[in-house]
Amino acid sequence: MTTISVRSDVPRQPRGIPTGGQFTAYRLQRPFLTRMTPEEAILQMNLLHHNFFVFRNFSNGGNFSVVYSRDGGGYGMIEES
Length: 81
Known about the structure:
This protein is mainly β. It has one domain (3-79): 2-Layer Sandwich (SHC Adaptor Protein). Helices cover 12% and strands 35% of the residues. The strands form two sheets. The protein has a four-stranded mixed sheet with strand order 3-4-5-6, with helices on one face. It has a two-stranded parallel ribbon with strand order 1-2. The longest helix is centred in the middle third of the chain and has 10 residues, at 38-47.
C-alpha cells in the first residue's frame, strides 16, 4: 500500500523518485474550477505559463476536464466520462 502525505512547509525543489513506496506531496492546491470552453482554458493556461489547466468544461455539461500542452506541439485534453 502506498502512503501519500501532504506537507506545505517544504520549499519547492525538484526531488528524485522516492523508494520504499512512500511519496510526499509538497504542495496542495484546491482551486475553484471555473466553467469555460476548452479554448478559453487553453488561453488561461498560456497566460499563466502553465503546462496544464484544470476546469469545468462548459461545452460538455460542466464535466471535470484538463487541457495540457504536448511535448511535440499542440494541445491535448482529458475529460471526465
